[in-house]
Amino acid sequence: MGPVLASLGFGPFFEAQLSPEERAALLPGRAVADRGRRLAVRFEDGERLVTIPGRLRAAGEVPVVGDFVLAPPGEEPPIARVLARRSRLSRGAAGRAEGEQVLAANVDLVFLVHGLDAGVKPRRLERELAAVYASGAEPVVLLAKVDLADDRAGALAEAEGAARGAAVHEVSGTTGEGVETIRALLAPGRTGVFVGPSGAGKSTLVNALLGAEVQPVTAVRARDARGRHGTTGRHLFALPGGGAVIDGPGIRELKLWGAGGIDEVFDDVAAIAAGCRFADCTHEEEPGCAVREAVEEGRLDPGRLESLKKLESEARSAELRRGGAAAQEEKRRWRTVSRDRRRINRGRGRE
Ligand SMILES: Nc1nc2c(ncn2[C@@H]2O[C@H](COP(=O)(O)OP(=O)(O)OP(=O)(O)O)[C@@H](O)[C@H]2O)c(=O)[nH]1
Ligand SMILES: [Mg+2]
Ligand SMILES: [Zn+2]
To answer: Which of 25, 74, 102, 332 has the CA that lies 20 to 30 A from 92?
Structure first.
C-alpha cells in the first residue's frame, strides 16, 4: 500500500478485500471525478481515466466519487471491480426518477453547509442529519459565510437546537475563519464531503482548504435566472496535509432513502414519547399523549414534531419503493441464474 492511497483512505478494510490474484494483476485506485461513461481515478502513481464496463452498470455496481476500484494498468482500462464501501451517502433520486442515488462513497465526515446569508434552516438540517446518520458517516454542521450573519449567536443557538449533539462550527471560506478547524478534522486517511444548497459557500471552503482557487466560485447574484449551480460535477480533492474533500453541486433537498437515521435526530422526541399512554402513539388524537402535552407546554418545538412526522412518512414511502427495487433485483438475479442453469443443462445434454 503506497503513501498516496493511504492518505486518501485506502486502509486495511479495503486492502483485505483483494484476492492474491487481484493483488498480482490489478491496481487499486480511488474515483476522484465522474466523467460520464468514464471515471477519473487516482492510482498510487497518478491519475488516469478508466471506463465503466456495461457489466458493472447492469449489475447496479456503478462506481461513484469516493469509491475504491480495481483496474489493470494501461490506457483507459475497464474497471474490474468496485470494492465494498465503508459508508455511503445516499438520497432518493431527484426529480421523477426513482431509486437510490449514491452521492459519495467512503466518507468519514459529511459537512452540512448552511450559509448564514440565507440563515439556518432547522428543518433542512434535521433532514440532512437523518441522511447522514443512515450513511455510516459522522455529521458536522458548518455555519458558513459567518461574516454575512445578521445574528451569529442566534443562528448558532438555532443550529445547535436542531443538531442534537452534532458538532456545529462557524466558518468562512472568504475570511478563513474556522478553516483550520475543518482541516484538523481531515487528518490523513480521512475524507469529508460538502453538502448544502447552491451558493452556501462550499467551493469557497474547498479552495480555502486547498490554498488555491481550484474550484470556480460564482457569485450567487451572477448565476443565471434558472438559479443554476456554480459547481456541476462531484470531485474529490487530496488536501496538502493529507486527507480528502469532495465538492459537488448544490443540493436543494436531500430526499430520504430509508428510515435509518431519523431516530437519532429526534432522540428528544423519542424520550418524551416514552411517556405517551399508548406505545404506538402517533401523537395525533390519542389521549394521554406526552408529546402533544410537551408542545402545548412549550417544551417541544411544534415545527420539530411536524418535521419528524413528515420525514417518517417520506421514509415509509421510500422503504416501499426500496422494497419494490429489491424485488426487481431479485427477479433479475433469478432470470440470470436460470439462464445460466439452462446453459449448463444444454452443455450437459451435448456431452
Ligand atoms: N462574504 C462571503 N461570501 C462568501 C463566503 N463563502 C462564499 N461566498 C460567496 O458566495 C458565492 C457562492 O459561493 P460558492 O463557494 O460558489 O458556493 P457553493 O456552495 O459552492 O455553490 P454551488 O457550487 O452552486 O453549490 C460566491 O460569490 C462566493 O464568493 C463567505 O464566507 N463570505
Ligand atoms: Mg460549488
Ligand atoms: Zn403521543
So the answer is: 332
CA of 196 to the centre of ligand 2 (A): 9
Q: Is the dihedral of CA 300, 302, 305, 307 positive or negative?
A: negative
pLDDT in tens, 91-136: 987 766 667 889 999 999 999 999 999 989 999 999 999 999 989 9
**Ligand nearest to C-alpha 201:** 1
Q: Which of 152, 194, 217 to mutate to test the pocket of ligand 1 (most atoms within 8 A of CB)?
A: 217
Cα–Cα dist 336/55, whole Å:
13
For residue 231, the ligand 1 atom closest to its alpha carbon is 23
Q: Whose CA is nearest to atom 6 of ligand 1?
A: 201
**How far is it, in rounded angstroms, from Cα 88 to Cα 64?**
10
Ligand 1 atom index nearest CA of 250:
25
Ligand 1 neighbours (beta carbon < 6 A): 144-145, 147-148, 172-174, 196, 198-204, 217-220, 229-231, 249-250
The amino acid sitting at 40 is: A
- Rounded Cα gap, residues 247 and 261, in angstroms: 23
Q: Nearest 10 degrees: CA dihedral of 109, 193, 210, 204?
A: -120
- Which residue minimizes the CA distance to atom 11 of ligand 1? 219
In the reported structure, the alpha carbon of residue 315 is separated from the centroid of ligand 3 by a whole-number distance in angstroms of 20
Nearest by Cα to 304 from 113, 133, 126 = 126
- For residues 114-132, one letter each, b for 16 or more C-beta atoms within 10 angstroms of the residue's C-beta and e for the rest, the string is bbbbbbbebebbbbbbbbb
Phi, psi for residue 246 in degrees, rounded to 5: -115, 125
| Of residues 122, 114, 138, the one with CA closest to residue 205 | 114
Q: pTM for the whole thing?
A: 0.88
Residue 85 DSSP label = P
